[in-house]
Write a structure and sequence with these properties.
By secondary structure, the chain is mainly α. Helices cover 70% and strands 3% of the residues. The longest helix is centred in the C-terminal third of the chain and has 32 residues.
Length: 447
């Protein structure tokens, strides 16, 4: 202890100050590294003597329920349906923040990444369709539309000062719009037969969440309960249950109870009272007045932050470091038969995914950006060139998480087609990531 502070290596309360953007980039970078490690582990296990054990474990059923209600899903489905709902919740919170106070809050700032993201969804889908105009492979058209934000930002962050900071914010804005597009595609085109009764329950739960927001409820528990009911209703409705995460995100309040000036005044008043309480009784353990003032201050700290802001901060770490790596472990295990590599790479589904991610993404992102500039709809952020946009387009071809997720939906029940899609995703993501990284690295050296 020195200067009145008990130091511990994992406690840096006031010294550790990071902006929301810095914290977001740091966690996405680390998440990208963990994703890579878990994907490699899954690939190794799937091509080892442990393959059967791995497959058996993922298909083990786990049942949860109460009364007559019972949910019985395999471990693989619990991961893709429940854990990924938290991923979609964080994604929805990020999108909501960007729309209200971030890069997408200003129409002039938002237009360019929105146009680029639209191009980065349409052209890859077209590239996939060229190889799959008919037949069972058609269902995978949405696979190359998605960008893995963790991998993409992780690759860009490795370049450090070699790339302009505006390029990082451009990629984040683009990837978040891309994620919103992926959510809409899942909700509209990858939905099973609808259960209208369950949809009515889902609508009622959504109404309850909106009501909680409208009457000013800021505690987490009511939203958690209503959100859990919404997830169960969505699971039974036929619409993918993960969409519940986005709905919950958009109903959590974004405005704090206290404005900063009001909070600062309350802190100053509380500080004076705490000083007097300690002066009257230095024994902190038995100083009930001091403890009550600290508790009140703690409540105030929560109320000066928006509930959506607190939720994003609390969930981002477990989602980035636990949920997404677990998803990679459960979904990236692809058995590779080297004797059939030629047939696999020549499969229309594999070719469509590779064409969409590796060629369609950079063509769509750079092409639509160029068009927006030519039409004077927008201007490039300071320090960026079209070569930078091409590099970002290549990084956008890292599909992984969302692409695998859509592949699981599009080819559910068809293991062979899913294998072709996942092979294309992994190969295209690897090539796109390396190409984008080295192009931007070369541009950084030249600058």
């Amino acid at each position: 202890m020195s200067d009145g502070i008990h130091h511990a290596p994992w406690e840096r309360a006031f010294e550790r100050l990071m902006t929301p953007l810095e914290e977001f980039i740091h966690r996405q970078t680390t998440s990208g590294i963990l994703l890579m490690i878990c994907a490699v582990i899954a690939l190794v296990v799937a091509n080892s003597p442990l393959r059967d054990t791995y497959e058996h474990f993922l298909h083990t059923d786990i049942s949860l329920g109460f009364g007559e209600g019972l949910f019985s899903l395999s471990i693989h489905h619990w991961i893709n349906e429940l854990l990924m709902a938290f991923f979609f919740l964080v994604m929805g919170l990020e999108l909501k923040r960007e729309l209200l106070v971030g890069e997408l809050s200003s129409p002039s700032q938002a237009l360019l990444p929105i146009v680029a993201a639209v191009g980065g969804m349409l052209i890859p889908a077209l590239g996939y369709w060229i190889f799959n105009t008919s037949g069972p492979g058609v269902a995978g058209w949405g696979i190359p539309m998605a960008t893995d934000i963790a991998f993409a930002i992780g690759a860009l962050s490795l370049l450090g000062a070699r790339v302009p900071k505006t390029l990082v914010t451009f990629l984040i804005a683009l990837a978040i719009v891309d994620d919103l597009g992926a959510v809409l595609v899942i909700a509209l085109f990858y939905t099973n037969k609808l259960d209208l009764t369950a949809l009515l329950y889902a609508g009622a739960c959504t109404g309850l969440l909106v009501l909680l927001n409208a009457v000013g409820i800021r505690r987490t528990l009511p939203y958690a309960i209503a959100g859990a009911l919404l997830w169960m209703a969505m699971l039974a409705s036929g619409i993918h249950a993960t969409i519940a995460g986005v709905i919950i995100a958009f109903t959590i309040p974004i405005r704090p109870k206290f404005e900063p000036e009001v909070f600062i005044d309350k802190v100053e008043d509380s500080s004076k009272k705490m000083r007097k309480a300690v002066w009257d009784n230095p024994d902190i353990i038995h100083n009930n007045r001091f403890r009550a003032l600290v508790s009140a201050l703690e409540d105030g700290v929560h109320l000066v932050q928006a509930p959506a802001q607190r939720a994003e901060h609390a969930l981002h770490l477990p989602v980035a470091y636990i949920v997404i790596p677990i998803f990679a472990l459960a979904n990236a295990g692809i058995p590779i038969n080297f004797s059939d590599v030629g047939a696999t790479l020549g499969n229309p589904i594999t070719l469509g995914v590779i064409c969409g991610l590796l060629l369609g993404k950079p063509l769509g992102i750079a092409g639509f950006t160029w068009l927006a500039l030519k039409l004077n709809w927008a201007t490039l952020p300071a320090g960026l060139s079209m070569a930078h946009v091409v590099g970002v387009g290549l990084l956008g071809g890292i599909g992984f998480t969302m692409s695998i997720f859509i592949a699981d939906l599009g080819f559910a029940g068809n293991a062979d087609h899913l294998l072709m899609a996942k092979t294309g995703i992994l190969l295209a993501s690897l090539l796109a990531g390396l190409s984008g990284f080295f192009l931007l690295r070369a541009l950084g050296r030249r600058g």
